[in-house]
Structure formats: C-alpha cells, structure tokens
Design a protein that fits this description.
single chain; 402 residues; alpha/beta; seven-stranded parallel beta sheet; 16 helices
C-alpha cells in the first residue's frame, strides 16, 4: 500500500462487472489500490457472491457495506421514496439513494481517519455527504445526469412519460448544479461532459479522464463470426439502451433487412425490459439473450457491432471493448460522444436511419472493409487506452493541490 489514504464511496459493490460504471471504477481502483490505501463504502448487495466479497476485501484497505437503499427494486421503500420525492419536489433519481446509514458510515470513517482525499463515485451517493465533507470530496461524474433526462424527454413521444422525464430533468439539473458547486472538484469521463458543466454551471475546477479498456481481456476471437450477425450489448433495463434498440429495430433494421434478407440482430445484456423482450416477438431474426456469463463470445459472433444511442452522456465503454476485439463499430454521434476516434478509419458514425442502415449494409457486404476497420480499431485502443495510464491520470487529479 502507498502512503496516501483515500475514502471511495459508491452505491454498488462493482461486482459483477455488468455495467459500464462498474467496469470503469473497478479497473481504475484495481490499479489505484496498489498505490494508495483505499477504504471503500457501498450498499450491501444480495447478489454479491462470497468469492466476489473476498476479492473486494483483499483489494481494499477496508471494505464497508451498509444496508441497501435498494433503488432498483419495486418494493415498499422504492414506492414510498417515489411518492416522497414528488411530494417534496426533489428528483427521484437522487432521493432514492439517500440513506441515513450511508451518511452515518461516511461521517464515522472521516472522524476516525485522516484521508488525503474523498471520492464520491456518481451523483447518486452525493446527498449522503455532509456539506462540510463535500468541500473535501472529489465528485466522479460518469455522466452529466441532467443531460440524460433532457435527451430522454426530447426523444419521448408518449405525453405522460415526456412530462415525467421533463420534470426529472428540471429537478436533477437544479440539484446537480448545487452539488457540483459544493464538491471540491469534479472529474468527468469526457471533455464534452466537462465542457457542459463549465458552460451550464459556470464551474472552473472541472477535469476529465479518458475511458480505458482491458486490452488483454478483450482480444480478437480466433473463431469466425456468424454470417450477417449484428450485435449490441448493454444493460437492457437502462433507458438509453432501450431507446437505442427500439429505434434501431423500428427505423433501421427493416432497411438493412431489405438489402440483406438473412441479417440477424443479437441484443445482449441483463434485465431486458418488456419493450426489449417484445422486439424478439416481432421478428424471428432478433435475438434477446438476457444476462450472459461472458459477453465476449456473443460479441465475437458479430460481423458488425452497433451503438445506435440517441440518449446519453458520459462515454460508452462498449465501443472501446468492441474495438479492442477487432470488431467494426457503427455508432451515432451521441453514442461515440467523448471518445477519440477517426470516422471512416476505425469506426463509422451515422445519425440518420438511412445513413446508419447504409453503413451496416456496406460492412455486411464487404468482408475486406470489415477487417480493415476492425484492425485499425484494435491498433488504436492498444496504443492509447490501457487502464493503468488512465488510473494514474485520475489519481493525480484527485491528489493535486493537497
């Protein structure tokens, strides 16, 4: 362990690595924990296995779990918090993570230890930091949260949902601005996100770190892909992913199928929502996998990897993971937002349904083009985006000026 001592607070225990935010934090912490003594605090999880808990206990100087806020389950506390958030005019996104037990644990650890830095991972745990503690804490923003709701409200066509999303956007923006101003500094995962905070909130102490990828874990497969297979991966209960796949299936897939009748789409990821499950019922050539133990075999089956994201912020780890596997990637501008890339060389960018379909068809019909884009993609991430380099940059920003 290094000489520096850090307190890192996050809502989840990171394992299993089934979300982009978990993957980003875990890979950075794996390297940071070798250079500093990290005390990690999170909500207890029923799904955290014994081996996973042992792994985290070994990884950190101290691993603390507090009773869960349980924001993802429709239980009585979830419903009560939803009602209370609306009654008091607070954003449900943040209100449901507020926990007296979490706040108490943070206060206790700060009283007992002299930390060189405190890190609040995501906006969710922010309300559990006392105002005085926020002045000593770095806020790690994987997304600019209000932008997610703003874009969701803009894309939503159902009137009642549009009203709900618009309300959450206004409230989240107000709270996000107040909280960002309260924290010592803010670290974003892209220069674009950092610019949003500077321009909209007038913040100056805002930094950005690049997204990394495990280039030894995500490597090109020795097995050939399945002919005419398109692949998308992600948590399929997350609104931006649901919107992406609904839009792709309704607006783009029919155009692709017209040119390539035997095309298949694999939607790979945990907790597929009812909207996603219904997509496979509409077309026998659409596969919804649900949770898989390892996403790489599914990714390797694809001749083309797609990221048709229209709603989102932060950065999509899935893009660099697919590039590391040597897959040709087609993304929207928002999907690839915050990531360095070269359109036409190591990725293809398309925003209109017609253009996206043309890009997909072009790659499906041109094996040589698929290979050249995939190779350029792999070479690009290997050269630029290893996790140790990203973790060192993050730690330097956290400790700078102390």
């Amino acid at each position: 362990m290094g000489a520096k001592k850090l307190l890192w607070v996050k809502t989840d225990a990171m394992l299993p690595l089934d979300k982009g935010g978990k993957i980003r934090s875990f890979n950075m912490l794996k390297h940071i924990a070798g250079k500093a003594a990290v005390d990690y605090v999170c909500f207890a999880s029923e799904t955290l296995g014994r081996d996973e808990r042992d792994q985290l206990t070994r990884m950190f100087h101290a691993f603390h779990e507090v009773p869960p806020a349980d924001p993802d389950r429709m239980n009585w506390k979830y419903l009560v918090n939803l009602i209370l958030a609306h009654a008091v005019g607070e954003p449900f996104t943040l209100y449901n993570y507020h926990s007296k037990q979490m706040a108490g644990k943070i206060e206790e650890l700060c009283r007992r230890n002299s930390y060189d830095a405190l890190i609040c991972d995501f906006l969710g745990p922010a309300l559990n930091f006392a105002p005085a503690a926020r002045k000593k804490t770095v806020l790690f923003q994987h997304n600019v949260e209000h932008v997610l709701w703003e874009r969701q409200a803009q894309q939503e066509k159902r009137p009642w949902r549009k009203l709900v999303y618009a309300r959450e956007y206004r409230l989240v923006k107000r709270y996000e601005e107040a909280l960002c101003r309260d924290f010592r500094r803010v670290i974003c995962v892209s220069g674009e996100d950092a610019d949003v905070l500077r321009k909209r909130f007038g913040l100056s102490d805002v930094y950005s770190v690049e997204t990394g990828v495990d280039i030894d874990y995500f490597t090109p497969s020795a097995s050939p892909p399945m002919p005419r297979r398109i692949v998308f991966t992600g948590s399929m209960d997350w609104l931006p992913n649901i919107d992406a796949m609904t839009w792709f299936v309704e607006e783009i897939f029919p155009k692709v199928k017209q040119a390539v009748p035997e095309v298949e789409l694999a939607i790979v990821g945990r907790n597929p929502s009812p909207e996603i499950q219904r997509l496979s019922g509409k077309n026998a050539r659409i596969i919804v996998s649900g949770k898989v133990p390892d996403v790489r075999p599914w990714m390797a089956q694809g001749e083309v990897f797609i990221v048709p994201i229209r709603v989102g912020g932060g950065t999509r780890l899935k893009i660099y993971e697919a590039m590391a596997m040597g897959l040709p990637v087609i993304s929207t501008t928002i999907g690839a937002e915050g990531l360095k890339h070269s359109h036409g060389e190591n990725i293809l960018i398309a925003d209109l349904p017609k253009d996206f379909a043309t890009a997909v068809v072009g790659l499906l019909q041109d094996p040589g083009r698929r290979r050249s884009v995939g190779k350029a993609a792999r070479d690009f991430v290997v050269e630029n985006y290893s996790w140790p380099r990203i973790a060192d940059q993050f730690l330097q920003i956290v400790l700078d000026g102390r």
